[in-house]
Amino acid sequence: MTVISQNLSINWGCRHTWRTAAKNTSWCLLGCSIGDFGTIAFFQFTGIAWPTLAIMTLAIINGLMTSIALETFILSRQMVLGLAFKTAIGMSLISMVSMEAAMNLVDVLMTGGAKLTWWVIPFMLFAGYVTPLPYNYWRLKALGKGCCH
């Protein structure tokens, strides 16, 4: 049996792993949302005229950075700061980038992009949560690794 077929034949019905993946994904979503929403809000409130794509790209980068910062803070309570940072940097960028891309795609589709309104935020958060969740489950089950801890 190849490694790929072994990884695809994991048990997708494990409630414990789904709970762990859900918790990890929630922490990642919190970290990503802080930087993402903060960036969009900054440009929205200041009226600085940047292209939507530039704002969204910066929002994704800032979301990744705040997620890593939050993860470093959380892990620093369990290990020394340097190791906490290395662990946070080693998180799954696939998970975080897919989360950020989903959130920003929803924003673009629903508002035209780079606009936070009270009604779009829940849709952005939902998309950002469900997009990486199956991958995070698979990562835990197949590789024994989480995107966040």
Word description of this protein:
The structure is a single chain. This protein has 149 residues and is mainly α. It has one domain. It is 75% helix and 0% strand. It is built from 7 helices and no strands. Helix 2 crosses helix 5 (93-111) and helix 2 packs across helix 7 (133-143). The chain is globular, with a radius of gyration of 16 Å. The protein starts with a helix and ends in a 6-residue tail after the last helix.
What is the beta-strand fraction?
Answer: under 5%
Outline the low-pLDDT stretches. Answer: none
Order of helices and strands: HHHHHHH
Number of helices: 7
Keywords:
149 residues; globular; 0% strand; mainly alpha
Question: What order do the helices and strands come in, and which of them pair?
Answer:
Elements (H helix, E strand, L loop, with lengths): L2 H6 L6 H32 L5 H25 L4 H9 L3 H19 L9 H10 L2 H11 L6
Helix pairs in contact: 2-3, 2-5, 2-7, 3-4, 3-5, 5-6
In brief:
With 149 residues, the protein is mostly helical. Helix content is 75%, strand content 0%.
